[in-house]
Amino acid sequence: MEYEAVIGLETHVQLKTKSKMWCGCANEFGAAPNSNVCPVCLGLPGVLPVANEAGLRQTALAGLLLNCEVSRYAKFDRKNYFYPDAPKNYQITQFDKPSTQRGFVDFEFQGGMARVCITRAHLEEDVGKNIHFDRQSGVDFNRAGVPLLEIVSEPDITSPDMAYEYLNALKDILVYGGISDCDMEKGMVRCDVNVSVRPKGAKEMGAKIEIKNMNSFSGARRALEYEIPRQIEAVKKGEKLRQETRRWDDAAGITEVMRTKEQAHDYRYFPEPDLMPFTPDDAWIAAVQKCVVELPLARKQRFMRDYQLPAPDAQTFVWDVPLGGYFETVVKGAKNPKGAANWVINNLRAKLTETQTTLADLKFKPEALNELVGLVDSGKISSKIAQEVFTEMFASGDAPAAIVEKKGLAQVSDTGAIEKFCDEAIAANPKSAADFKAGNANALNFLKGQVMKASKGKANPALVGEILERKIKA
Q1: What is the C-alpha to C-alpha distance for residues 318 and 418, in angstroms, rounded to an integer?
Q2: What is the pTM of this model?
Q3: In this structure, are residues 325 and 316 in contact, taking their beta carbons and an 8 Å threshold?
Q4: DSSP per-residue string spanning 265-334
Q5: Average per-residue pLDDT in the chain?
Q6: Calpha distance 159→391 (Å, rounded)
Q7: Portions of the chain given CATH number 1.10.10.410
Q8: Does residue 441 sit in helix, strand or coil?
Q9: Other beta carbons less than 10 A from residue 236's beta carbon
Q10: What is the DSSP letter of 359?
Q11: pLDDT tens digits, residue range 14-48?
Q12: How confident is the model at residue 443, as a pLDDT?
């Protein structure tokens, strides 16, 4: 019997706010332990939380970017548990009335498109961080109270690779929208996996196994690559799987039991008495909607559709938004968008890296690159000469046509002049001419190189090839 996996993901993302969710303490990474704390985020008696509006806005914006419905009535709840890193012994979160719900993420997968539906994306607060030393442990509460978005997917994921691609697509959306920097090394993104197996085609779900302690997307994929075969093998042996929570040991490459359903916590949710329900009006939601940006997948598809760019070029402009924006200023009215893209991606980007400058530092206008492409396409200059022109225009800011005129770089298309160069190349390399005549095509390329060298790169390469071939075969 064949079995299939059913996978759902819970992704926790720190929001990009200046301060924490319920107090004015800084939301920053790398500060001295327990330096960004106050009575509110430490949960001392008599304090009252006040919601950070930036956190509320970013939650709603994230919901819109994930195609979710933004609720007109959301409330906060207390989720009670007793861990050393939870200073209040409860977490302020959203339970039955989340800020956003019922959305989806579309992404490329295995040459096509895939969709994972989002159950909810709700706002809560982060906890502190346990730090273990040789003989003792400590808790850093700097992170406690940082706004956290929990994004819960439907069990639409069917493989470790699909989970990996979904997580990357989700990260790209959140970074694009300015919701979070999603730096996993700083703990800004964490993921829990829920996975079960069942006979292929069955409707009933198997026992849900939750996997924790994955500190990277590749770790989540590796955990699933281990756990799915483990569950299938157990079922085939007649074992009855039970709902449980397991931890991922990245070094050993295995999952281990943490607790079973019988040991599961009763969180005793109840409405947070110190916070009013959040009821955004039309004007507030409209203001958030103005912050919605073009998503990475939509941007890639538009670059491919509007500029006829191949997928790798379009993806480059997705990864590097400023470079893509610059390309769009270059390509206005361009006859050869692909040629312009080549110069932006291959030449301009390399030159910026080499000189440690930015697009804002460029001395030439965007239309100059389009002009350079036109000079090559028209045959006025060769590709080799164009490289020289580009270097000069990058340094001086002069227009390409002016540089060509000033330095006398125009391509030679005069057949008489080119024939003279060809005669000299054939006379100086009789063996290469004989080799080509005998059927060695590479010999012609050598001779073309000699002509281009003699003409200082100005000869029209197409004409050079035609004339050489005619003369040798005559």
Answers
A1: 44
A2: 0.85
A3: no
A4: -----EE-TTSPPB---HHHHHHHHTT----HHHHHHHHHHHH---HHHHHHHHH-HHHHHHHHHHSTT-
A5: 92
A6: 48
A7: 415-473
A8: helix
A9: 10
A10: G
A11: 999 999 999 999 999 999 999 999 999 999 999 99
A12: 85
DSSP summary character for residue 157 = B
Q: What is the pLDDT of residues 397-407, one digit of tens each?
A: 999 999 988 87
With a cut of 90, say whether residue 383 has pLDDT above it: no
Residue 232, helix vs strand vs coil: helix
Rounded percentage of the chain residues whose pLDDT exceeds 70: 98
- Extended strands (E) in 81-178: 90-93, 100-109, 112-125, 129-132, 137-140, 147-153
Instruction: Report which residue type is found at 140.
Output: D
Q: Give the whole-angstrom CA distance, residue 226 versus residue 197.
A: 13
The residues near 425 (Cβ < 8 Å, ≥ 6 apart) are: 447, 450, 451, 454, 468
Sign of the C-alpha dihedral, residues 218, 219, 224, 230?
positive
Question: Strand 189-199 vs strand 3-14: parallel, antiparallel, or unpaired?
Answer: antiparallel
3-class secondary structure per residue, 159-219: CHHHHHHHHHHHHHHHHHCCCCCCCHHHCCEEEEEEEEEEECCCCCCCCCEEEEEECCHHH
Both tokens assigned to 189:
């993104």
Residues 6+ positions from 9 with CB-CB distance below 8 Å: 151, 152, 153, 157, 163, 166, 167, 191, 192, 193, 194, 220
| Of residues 318 and 460, more confidently modeled | 318
Is the pLDDT at 414 greater than 80? The verdict is: no
Cα–Cα distance for residue pair 246/225, rounded to 1 Å: 14
- Cα distance between residue 109 and residue 196, in whole Å: 22
Contact 128/31 with Cβ under 8 angstroms? no
Residue 381: count other Cβ atoms within 10 Å of its Cβ. Answer: 24
- The dihedrals phi and psi of 455, each to the nearest 5 degrees, come to -90, 5
User: What is the residue whose two structure tokens read 């895939």?
Assistant: 114
For CA atoms 27, 33, 36, 40, the dihedral sign is positive
User: Residue 138: what are its φ and ψ, rounded to 5°?
Assistant: -140, 165
CATH architecture of residue range(s) 415-473? Orthogonal Bundle (1.10)
Beta strands 129-132 and 137-140: pairing type?
Answer: antiparallel
Cα 463 to Cα 64: distance, rounded to the nearest angstrom: 57
